[in-house]
Write a structure and sequence with these properties.
Elements: E1 2-6, E2 13-17, H1 24-36, E3 44-48, H2 51-55, H3 78-90, E4 94-101, E5 108-111, H4 116-122, E6 130-133, E7 148-155, H5 159-175, E8 189-199, E9 206-207, E10 221-225, E11 228-231, E12 237-239, E13 249-260
Parallel strand pairs: 2-3, 2-4, 4-7, 5-6, 6-8
Antiparallel strand pairs: 1-3, 5-7, 8-13, 9-10, 10-11, 12-13
The protein binds zinc ion (ZN).
Length: 276
């Protein structure tokens, strides 16, 4: 784990890339921040998490790091030990963790029950297409254990994902008063709540004509399996859907559940405080 600091004092803000070794966007964003070394008004911890997986260009070495939190300093796997070490580093910090996907070129925040309140105050400051409440679908993720805003920055390995990651990191630091500027977006961020997995049977060829975050109407074809059309019984919003991203699922169905921020919330919103 690489750890660098911007500014002096005990950091209450952290920016993390490289939780997954095959998602370089967040790593580049952290490296750019370290190289640029801006004058910060609050100290910031910059972390590249899984250097071993990055060196091997693989998601993880022994276990998926974002499924083994809180980890264990004496754990059997590299990632269990790393999870415990990373949590110790992030204690007392409000953190941004950057990821990328195989399903979407834009940006969206991944939220859990534990981070909803934090997301309400910070996400409106970030350039996000959406925020997704994923509570109850996976366990062992960093967002369940510390005040962390997790952002999917774009398509894995793309230049676009790196650009987004750098922009989001700057916006996050501005939202928390570490960098100047920082204005909430007037329109806020649409919030989706995952409702169920969309299963995928074994086949040779998959296609997903549906577009993530765009409503699929009842009767609409959302995917094909070896040319056979899968038609929606009920309307839903596809999230993290792709032909080949997961082995047994296309992705998730979600419902729209309001917005985070936006002009309806008024212009008097204060800059978010760092929760302690
Ligand atoms: Zn990831």
């Amino acid at each position: 784990m690489r750890i660098e600091q911007l500014g002096d004092g005990e950091p209450e803000i952290a920016v993390v890339g490289g939780i997954h070794g095959d998602e370089p966007c967040g790593v580049r964003a952290v490296e750019q921040l370290i190289e640029r070394d801006p004058d910060v008004e609050r100290p910031v911890k910059c972390i590249v998490a899984n250097e071993e997986a990055l060196a091997a260009d693989t998601r993880y070495v022994e276990a998926d790091l974002n499924r083994v939190f809180p980890g264990d300093p004496d754990g059997d796997t590299h990632e269990e030990r790393l999870a415990a070490a990373l949590l110790a580093e992030l204690k007392g910090c409000t953190t941004l963790s950057m990821h990328s996907t195989q399903s979407y070129t834009g940006t969206f925040a991944v939220l859990a029950e534990e981070t909803m309140a934090l997301a309400q105050s910070i996400c409106p400051y970030l350039t996000l297409d959406a925020a997704v409440d994923t509570s109850a679908f996976t366990e062992g993720r960093l967002i369940e254990h510390e005040p962390v805003i997790e952002v999917e920055c774009g398509y894995q390995g793309s230049a676009g994902a790196t650009e987004h990651a750098s922009m989001i990191a700057e916006e996050f630091l501005a939202a928390l008063g570490a960098l100047p500027g920082g204005e909430p977006h007037d329109e806020g961020v649409p919030l989706y709540r995952l409702t169920h997995l969309i299963p995928k049977g074994a086949a040779d060829a998959y296609d997903v004509p549906a577009t993530n975050f765009e409503r699929v109407a009842a009767g609409e074809t959302y995917a094909t399996i070896d040319g056979e059309e899968l038609v929606a019984d009920e309307p839903f919003y596809p999230v993290l859907m792709s032909p080949n991203g997961y082995e047994n699922e296309f992705g998730y169905a979600a419902e729209l559940d309001g917005r985070l921020g936006g002009s309806a919330a008024g212009d008097e919103r204060d800059r978010p405080e760092t929760p302690r």
